Amino acid sequence: MAHYIDMHNHILPAIDDGPRNMAEAVMLARDLVAAGYDTVVATPHTFEGKPAPDLILKRLGQLQDELKRQNVPLKLLPGAEQLIEPHLTARLQAGETLTLNQTKYLLLELPMLQPLPVYTEQLLFSLRTEGYRPVIPHPERVIALQRNHRLLYRLHQAGAIFQVTWAAFIGRIGPAAQKTARFMLDANLVHLLATDVHGPSTPLLAVDKAAAYLEQEKGDRFAALMLTTRPGHLLDDRTLDLPLPLTPAAHPRKKAFFLSRLFKA
Ligand SMILES: [Fe+2]
After folding, report:
1. Among 22, 28, 241, 249, which residue's Cβ finds the most Cβ atoms within 10 Å?
2. For residue 136, what is the domain's CATH number?
3. pTM
């Protein structure tokens, strides 16, 4: 049996745009177990400290109890997907929003459709200075990053770790997200992967197909690294051993491709 870890999903009932009730949340948990997961970090959408950590922990406890009662072998850990805001560092320090399983890692969501806020790099710097490690979920879906891949390198240099969605690699989130996800794979900028599922029976839970694609591109060790090893290190609050991003000079086979993408925007 596989022991996969999912670092980003919306499994908690009646708290965001995930499952509407306990029954749907249990169905999603069964889907995750069937896909090979035994641990998930529940990461409901939050903004400016809402919903409060107390409510997230309460829902998590309720769902964990129900899973035990129904013999669904899935362990839930607390987290949040925090939409970017200028005072996030202070809010974390005050305990008003959750990191991933109480580690130094947090999910920091960027706006999908608008330009990046002008304070983005400053916030990344402030988070790093205070000992946090920001993980940016689904960069492949952020239009500003789809249009300008140079920003990916800049954000990474400023301390961001990237978490790409499995389903993006096989085109289930659209062609633009697929293109960016594959660009990031070639550039060594896929640091983590997650499902980001919001409900049961979703075609986005395509981990097996996406893992097959990644194995073909990067070898079977890469998929295992993404499914168990690296998320395990993150949950233990260890420092992640990340590869350097590839530049055109470092990867001659991709030179023409990289140059065309880098200087397009
Ligand atoms: Fe999400």
Report:
1. 28
2. 3.20.20.140
3. 0.92
